[in-house]
Amino acid sequence: MAFIAMFIVLSCFFSASAALPNALNPPPFNKIYAFGDSFTDTGNTHTAAGPSGFGHVSNPPYGITYFHRPTNRYSDGRLVIDFVAQSLSLPLLPPYLHTKKNATHGVNFAVGGATAILHSFFVKNNLSLDITPQSIQTQLRWFNKFLESKGCKKSNPSGPECNAALDDALFWVGEIGVNDYAYTIGSSISGDTIRKLAMPSFTKFLQALLEKGAKYVVVQSLPTTGCLPLAMYLSPQDDRDDIGCVKTVNNQSFTHNVVLQANLQKLRKQFPQAVIVYADYWNAFHTVMKSPKKYGFKEPFKACCGSGEPPYNFDPFATCGTPSATACRNPCQYVNWDGVHLTEAMYKVMSDMFLNGTFSHPPFNYLLSKKHRQG
Fold this sequence. Notes:
Elements (H helix, E strand, L loop, with lengths): L1 H17 L12 E5 L44 H8 L18 E3 L10 H6 L11 H14 L10 H7 L2 E5 L4 H5 L8 H22 L3 E5 L8 H6 L12 H24 L4 E5 L1 H10 L8 E5 L1 E2 L19 E2 L6 E3 L7 H12 L4 E2 L2 H11 L1
Parallel strand pairs: 1-2, 1-3, 3-4, 4-5, 6-9
Antiparallel strand pairs: 5-10, 7-8
Helix pairs in contact: 2-11, 7-9
């Protein structure tokens, strides 16, 4: 195992180093607050509470590429939020539930398996088995408690403690909503119903952040979820789009994102003092899947870590981290890590597209320039 680990580290080292977004000195922000699901979670989930089928995130080979050990991240290494922190010359964010470490430079509230809709909805519809109980509203409550622990009270929102906690902070909201749709697979609940319930809840969350004084907010859309091995595994072969992914699932995420963009535009009008950036995860992901070799990927559909089941190296009953699963030797050549979550290499490409490319609207550089002018 040690030899394989060293091989993986060496085979991906140069790729991981070369494409890291340029670090900024001095840092434009002194802290980041992150929210979202397992694509953004840096350790709030442990084995017992992880999403069904992916509750082995604390076992090897998770974390093998960069950290050389599991860190409760759903990847072989760093996530988008890790690359964001490093590009802003900040430390990696500690998870809120385990913030014994210094939280001076921000906190990550994201939880693997989290939903946009309140957990009570899934309980009411008998869909709560093995589902993470935390929603985006739970993360908002955690954030409020964190602010209170810093002396920022509701009774004095403009006080020095609140200013210290909120000023010079970047709010990074990772994708949220994928789990809402996934948890209802096989039920009579339609995708339209999920979208109509998820969007108001998520918008309410964003509104609460902005009302508290968040000035710089990045919101990731849903990715092309139809390209994940899990979706491919569950769908019929005739349900495919122009890039070989599951058409109905990608269309569902696309429609969700259209509504999200409209809601963000309304929030921009309601909070003109804030910069709200839409990170277009769907089109960034789609662009890579159209030309994977251009971005260094040889395996766009097959999971790197899995049980060996063809054609996707994926079995929902023997996922990464279980005794029967093994990892490929070159995860940097794979888009997908474990059937649902991405490799560090793919997260690196996505982060570069958001921070330095054309897949953020307005561009991330615009947000940085506004921050620079406002001091």
